[in-house]
């Protein structure tokens, strides 16, 4: 992709989280992603930037959009993409993450995309393998490509990120999406509010440069962006909310609650959505929703990230 290749060299070999990226690194990835959007909108959707490169998707948690998005991104760049089906692999026979990774590493892939239920899994892998590693979600830690695709969606709709007020609402405690978004939005100068019942807030939230709002009315007032999060019931050991009905009443996004946000506020959700739990269908499918744009931007962001990490101008032996 000539446009992207004229952009400055991206300085990192892995993408393990938003933490550690500078505002310049983030903008560089978003600029590259902007250039990648047009490829997916052409009838001929394939370029040869990653021709001859091998991408392995290693997903230990089920995923629809993230895995298919990484797969399409790699294929559109011309890479050979392999999806490791963990459910039917040696992992089921007790193989450890590191042993699986070392086996795959011996097949000399160029890039490994990992999703894992444990925080830190991607960083651990990056120390053990010889190729680039992308974190596609590690436990409740980070999900950097989701934050990047959210930022791209916002930047394209609003023209900027700095100065915007973004309300992130719902299950902040279990959400890697929230954590990565808070880091990214703060890095680019947005004002970030979080809205959640106290049981769904992490203990360290006060140190994350966000305004904590106990009600939707306070959190959404004058907001430019309303980002809803899924209630991650699979990560909950006990009862964090009294009932789903009550949760929707207080924290679910409906037309009435959205009224206090800016008239042109964007409504976002990373998916998968629980309709009627954190978001009403009329809002999810309504005129302010950019949920489908987020999915489209996901492919572009993942193309941009893989291109940037595998930039042929970089000496592949460096370990930065
Ligand atoms: C998110 C995830 O897996 O962290 N989904 C996604 O990547 N599209 C959010 C979620 O599962 O709620």
Can you characterise this structure?
This protein has 320 residues and is an alpha/beta fold. Helices cover 38% and strands 14% of the residues. The chain is built from 12 helices and 9 strands. The strands form 2 sheets. Strands 7-6-5-8-9 form a 5-stranded parallel sheet. A 4-stranded parallel sheet has the order 2-1-3-4, sandwiched between helices. Helix 2 (23-41) crosses helix 6 (144-158), helix 2 packs across helix 12 and helix 6 crosses helix 12. The longest helix has 19 residues, at 23-41. The radius of gyration is 19 Å and the shape is globular. N-carbamoyl-L-aspartate binds next to helix 3 and helix 7.
SSE diagram, text form:
Elements: H1 2-5, H2 23-41, E1 54-59, H3 65-76, E2 80-85, H4 97-106, E3 111-116, H5 121-128, E4 132-138, H6 144-158, E5 165-169, H7 176-187, E6 191-195, E7 211-213, H8 216-220, E8 225-228, H9 244-251, H10 255-258, E9 266-268, H11 281-284, H12 291-309
Parallel strand pairs: 1-2, 1-3, 3-4, 5-6, 5-8, 6-7, 8-9
Helix pairs in contact: 2-6, 2-12, 3-12, 4-5, 6-7, 6-12
The structure holds N-carbamoyl-L-aspartate.
N-carbamoyl-L-aspartate binds next to helix 3 and helix 7.
């Amino acid at each position: 992709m000539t446009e992207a290749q004229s952009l400055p060299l991206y300085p990192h070999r892995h993408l393990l989280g938003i933490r550690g990226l500078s505002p310049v690194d983030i903008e560089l990835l978003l600029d590259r992603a902007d250039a990648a959007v047009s490829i997916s909108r052409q009838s001929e959707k394939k370029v040869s930037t990653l021709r001859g490169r091998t991408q392995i998707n290693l997903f230990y948690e089920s995923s629809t959009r993230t895995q298919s998005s990484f797969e399409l991104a790699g294929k559109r760049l011309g890479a050979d993409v392999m999806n490791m089906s963990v459910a039917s692999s040696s992992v089921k026979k007790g193989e450890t993450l590191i042993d699986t990774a070392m086996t795959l590493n011996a097949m000399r892939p160029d890039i490994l995309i990992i999703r894992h239920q444990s925080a830190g899994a991607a960083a651990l892998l990056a120390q053990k393998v010889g190729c680039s590693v992308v974190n596609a979600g590690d436990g409740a830690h980070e999900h950097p490509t989701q934050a990047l695709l959210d930022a791209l969606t916002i930047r394209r709709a609003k023209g900027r990120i700095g100065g915007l007020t973004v309300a992130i609402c719902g299950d902040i405690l279990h959400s890697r999406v929230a954590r990565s978004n808070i880091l990214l939005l703060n890095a680019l100068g947005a004002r970030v509010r979080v809205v959640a019942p106290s049981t769904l807030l992490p203990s360290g939230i006060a140190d994350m440069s966000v305004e904590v709002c106990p009600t939707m009315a306070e959190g959404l007032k004058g907001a430019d962006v309303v980002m809803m999060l899924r209630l991650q019931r699979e990560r909950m050991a006990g009862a964090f909310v009294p009932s789903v009905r009550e949760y929707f009443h207080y924290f679910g996004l409906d037309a009435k609650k959205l009224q206090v946000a800016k008239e042109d506020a964007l409504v976002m959700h990373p998916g998968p959505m629980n309709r009627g739990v954190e978001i009403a269908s009329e809002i999810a499918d309504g005129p302010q929703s950019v949920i489908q744009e987020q999915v489209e931007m996901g492919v572009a962001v993942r193309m941009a990230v893989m291109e940037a990490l595998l930039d042929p101008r970089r000496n592949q032996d460096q370990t930065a």
